[in-house]
Design a protein that fits this description.
The protein is of the alpha+beta class. It is built from 13 helices and four strands. The longest helix is centred in the C-terminal third of the chain and has 27 residues. It is globular.
Amino acid sequence: MLITYKILFPCAALVALFFTACDAGVSSTEFTLPDEPSAAMQTIADEMLAGNCSILWHAMPASFQTDVNAIAQLVGAKVDPEIYDKSFGLIGRFAEVADKQKLFILNTKLGGELAAEQIAEIEAALPSIIGFVQTIVTSSISSTAGLRAFDGQVFSEQTLPVLFKYSNDLAAFSEENPFSSLEFDSLKTIVSTGTTAEIKITFTNGDVETEDFAKVENRWVPAEMAINWSTQMADAKKQLEAISSEKMVKNKPQIMGMITMVDGILTQLEKAETQEQFDQALQGAMMPIGILMMQGKRD
């Protein structure tokens, strides 16, 4: 069963972990949520639909925020800096080449010829795809230094709204509305004890669901999340602490070789000045890409 706030709150944590940004000089923003359970949930949904994605951070209990910061910083301390930084540099190169050679990408016949309507849709979506990627690689997600200095509030107020905008733009090309789970006809608190609550959610499409919530440090979160959060965070820290530097050193030459190979492929695609040159470079890349995929499956 798809429950709105079982998605929203975990997404806040996951986004913080994988799309880390830490930029200096940003003022702290305070946000007050209603104390009444259904009113708090409605406020979160309204703010999200209005594009204020920082609400995801402000809706988290303070201890949850501390845990997210700690996990992100631990990631920065455990991963190999050269592999991590160059991997995200490679992602940035993908965006640069796609932006420069978008006409060749749209007009290539490799993989089958696309209908005019499909080409038009891809062409319209490309700027948002490229913008999404460039937003990530120009934030501190592209460096271990950024991870080690992670500040979830700064991320939620600076980078997440931009990512949300591009995601929203891309959603316009889909027949399904990914944000429909935020559109309520009504929210009603059925039972509340002050620390627990049951909320009846009536969606605009007529569907009705009930969800249990728990109050953690003056923030209402899904009850299941409140129960499992500490265990999940402890497990995540344990897995990160268990990362073996010896294993990374052993695998590093192979990984760096793969990064160099892909960078070389991108350079060939970037230098292409005609459709024929681009198609030849792309066709020549098929074998090494296949090798990389096979190696990835074995790993």
